[in-house]
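Propose amino acids for all 538 sites.
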C-alpha cells in the first residue's frame, strides 16, 4: 500500500490534503494512509491557542477546526503523533490515543496500531531530561512551566514501548533519535544546517530516549520531523545471536509544511491484502498497557522505571502469548478501533471570535470508554482526583511553587545527563521558548486567529517526493558513517553537560545595554508560523 508521510504540519491541514489531491490528479497516485510526525496543531478554538507553547502573535487558528466541526473531512485516514507546538489541552484528553476529528487519529503519549496488517508505533513530544522521570501531572489551565513540560517525553512511555517483542514496521517520533546523523550524509546535512555542527560533533543532537527505542525496536522505517530539514539515513543493526536475522532501519526526517517545501514523502509498504481497511488496535500493545497500568504516575515526583538492579521484584513487563490471546478474546477477535469521535469543546466560529475563552481540564468520553474496556487508569480522572486531594490537604500552593522550578535542581540526576530537546544551538528554523523566561502572561495574552479565509497556497508539485525502492545511503554519501551502534557513537547514556556558551544561547533579548527586565523567548525562526519569512530562512 502507499503511505504518505508528512513532517511538521503546523495546522495547515488544507495544504496537506490539497497536495495529496494534486498528486492523485496529476499522477493517479492515491495514498491509503497519511502519517504526520508531530506539530499537528489540532486547535479547536481560542482556548486551545492559549495552550500552545508559542509566542502569542504566532497563535493562528489555521484550518483544523473545520475538520473538528465536520465542515470538512480528511480525505485519507490520518495518523499523527504530538510534537512541541500543540494544543496540549486537546491532546491531553487522549493519553492512550483517539480520534481528534473524523478520520484523524492521534496515537497518544505513545501507541501502536495496525492498518492493513502494517504495525505502526509512535511516541509524542520531545525529550527534556529534567522532566523525563516525572509523571504526567500537568493539566489546564497551564502555567509558564507546565505549558511546556506537558509535551515532554516521559520514561514510562519509553518503558512501555521497550516491552514490545513483535516486529514494528513503522515508527514515528517528533525529535530525531540521537546519533542517527552518523548513518546518513552528514556532510550535506551540515551544509544545509551549519548551526547543527556543534551538536553533531559532540553527539548531543536529538533524543537519547528515541535512540534507545531505535536500538530496541529496530523498525523497518523510522520517521521524524522537528528540525525542519529533510534527511535520510540507513542504519544496519547488530544481531544479538547467530540465529537472529540482520535488521536495518530506513530513517527519514521530513521538512515542515510550507509552500514549495519538500514536506511529503510517498512510500510503498508491504501489507496484508486480506486485512480490512479499518484502523485497528494492536493486541500486544493493549496487553502491555494492562501489564504496566500499576506504574501510572500523575505526580511530578521523579522516579525510575523498574530494572534488573536488585531493587525491584519485577522489571520485565513484556507480555506472553497467553496475555495477547486474552486481549483478542476480550475483543471477540474484532480489533477495529471504534469510530467514536465526540466533540468535547466549542468549535471556533470566525463570525463570533472569543479571545478570552479559557481552557478547562476535560475528560474525553473516548478515553473513559477505552479505560473501562481494558481496565486501565484514566490518567485525567486520576489527575483531577489528585488535585482535589491536595486541595483538601492545603497543598496547592506548595505544588505551584514546585511547578515553577523548571531547573530540576531538586531532582535526582536523570538517567540521561544532557538536557536536549533536539537543539541547543541557534536554529533558524525552530521556535523554542526560553526555559527560564517565558511567554506573555497566559491569562491575558491575546490570541490572533487567522481570517476565515486564510491566504491560499499556490500548490507546487515540488512539495511531493516519491520514495525510491531503497532509502539506503551509499558509502560515498554516508560521510563519517562507521556503522557503529548508536550507543557506541556517543551513547544515549553518555550525555555531556552544556558549556556556558551553550547555556548562554538560551537567553536572548534585552535592551542595548544588556538589561533583561523583559521576559524573553528564544526564537528559532518565526518562519514556522509565517510563510512570508520563508525566503529569509533560506
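Proposal:
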Amino acid at each position: 500500500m502507499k503511505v504518505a508521510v508528512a513532517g511538521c504540519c503546523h495546522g495547515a491541514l488544507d495544504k496537506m490534503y490539497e497536495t495529496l489531491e494534486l498528486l492523485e490528479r496529476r499522477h493517479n497516485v492515491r495514498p491509503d494512509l497519511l502519517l504526520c510526525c508531530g506539530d499537528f496543531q489540532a486547535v479547536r478554538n481560542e482556548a486551545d491557542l492559549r495552550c500552545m507553547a508559542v509566542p502569542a502573535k504566532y497563535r493562528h487558528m489555521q484550518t483544523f477546526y473545520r475538520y473538528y466541526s465536520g465542515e470538512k473531512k480528511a480525505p485519507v485516514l490520518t495518523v499523527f503523533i504530538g510534537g512541541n507546538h500543540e494544543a496540549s489541552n486537546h491532546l491531553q484528553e487522549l493519553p492512550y490515543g483517539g480520534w481528534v476529528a473524523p478520520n484523524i487519529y492521534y496515537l497518544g503519549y505513545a501507541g501502536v496500531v495496525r492498518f492493513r496488517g502494517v504495525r505502526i508505533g509512535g511516541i509524542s513530544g520531545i525529550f527534556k531530561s529534567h522532566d523525563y522521570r516525572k509523571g504526567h501531572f500537568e493539566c489546564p489551565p497551564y502555567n509558564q512551566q507546565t505549558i511546556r513540560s506537558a509535551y515532554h517525553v516521559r520514561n514510562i512511555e519509553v518503558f512501555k514501548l521497550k516491552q514490545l517483542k513483535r516486529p514494528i514496521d513503522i515508527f514515528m517520533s517528533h525529535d530525531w533519535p540521537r546519533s542517527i546523523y552518523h548513518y546518513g550524509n552528514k556532510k550535506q546535512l551540515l551544509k544545509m544546517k551549519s548551526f547543527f555542527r556543534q551538536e553533531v560533533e559532540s553527539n548531543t543532537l536529538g533524543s537519547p530516549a528515541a535512540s534507545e527505542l531505535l536500538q530496541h525496536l529496530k523498525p523497518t522505517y523510522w520517521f521524524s520531523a522537528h528540525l525542519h530539514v529533510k534527511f535520510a539515513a540507513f542504519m544496519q543493526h547488530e544481531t544479538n545471536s547467530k540465529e537472529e536475522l540482520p535488521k536495518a532501519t530506513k530513517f527519514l526526517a521530513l521538512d515542515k509544511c510550507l509552500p514549495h517545501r519538500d514536506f511529503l514523502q510517498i512510500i510503498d509498504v508491504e501489507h496484508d491484502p486480506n486485512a480490512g481497511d479499518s484502523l485497528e488496535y494492536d493486541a500486544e500493545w493493549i496487553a502491555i498497557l494492562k501489564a504496566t497500568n500499576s506504574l501510572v504516575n500523575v505526580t511530578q515526583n521523579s522516579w525510575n522505571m523498574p530494572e534488573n538492579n536488585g531493587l525491584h521484584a519485577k522489571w520485565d513487563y513484556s507480555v506472553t502469548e497467553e496475555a495477547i490471546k486474552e486481549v483478542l478474546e476480550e475483543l471477540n477477535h474484532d480489533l477495529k478501533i471504534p469510530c467514536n469521535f465526540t466533540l468535547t469543546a466549542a468549535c471556533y466560529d470566525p463570525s463570533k471570535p472569543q479571545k478570552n475563552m479559557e481552557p478547562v481540564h476535560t475528560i474525553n468520553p473516548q478515553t473513559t470508554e477505552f479505560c473501562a474496556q481494558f481496565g486501565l487508569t484514566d490518567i485525567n480522572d486520576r489527575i483531577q482526583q489528585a488535585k482535589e486531594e491536595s486541595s483538601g490537604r492545603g497543598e496547592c500552593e506548595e505544588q505551584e511553587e514546585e511547578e515553577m522550578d523548571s531547573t530540576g535542581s531538586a531532582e535526582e540526576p536523570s538517567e540521561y545527563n544532557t538536557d536536549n530537546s533536539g537543539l541547543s544551538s541557534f536554529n533558524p528554523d525552530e521556535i523554542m521558548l526560553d526555559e527560564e523566561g517565558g511567554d506573555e502572561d497566559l491569562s491575558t495574552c491575546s490570541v490572533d486567529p487567522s481570517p476565515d479565509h486564510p491566504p491560499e497556497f499556490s500548490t507546487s508539485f515540488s512539495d511531493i517526493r516519491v520514495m525510491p525502492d531503497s532509502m539506503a545511503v551509499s558509502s560515498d554519501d554516508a560521510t563519517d558513517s562507521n556503522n557503529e551502534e548508536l550507543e557506541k557513537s556517543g551513547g544515549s547514556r553518555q550525555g555531556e553537560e552544556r558549556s556556558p556558551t551553550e547555556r548562554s544561547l538560551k537567553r536572548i533579548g534585552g535592551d542595548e545595554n544588556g538589561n533583561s527586565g523583559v521576559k524573553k523567548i528564544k526564537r528559532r525562526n518565526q518562519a514556522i508560523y509565517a510563510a512570508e519569512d520563508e525566503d529569509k530562512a533560506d
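Residues 189 and 231 are 7 Å apart (CA to CA). The domain at 2-390 is CATH 3.60.21.10 (Purple Acid Phosphatase; chain A, domain 2).
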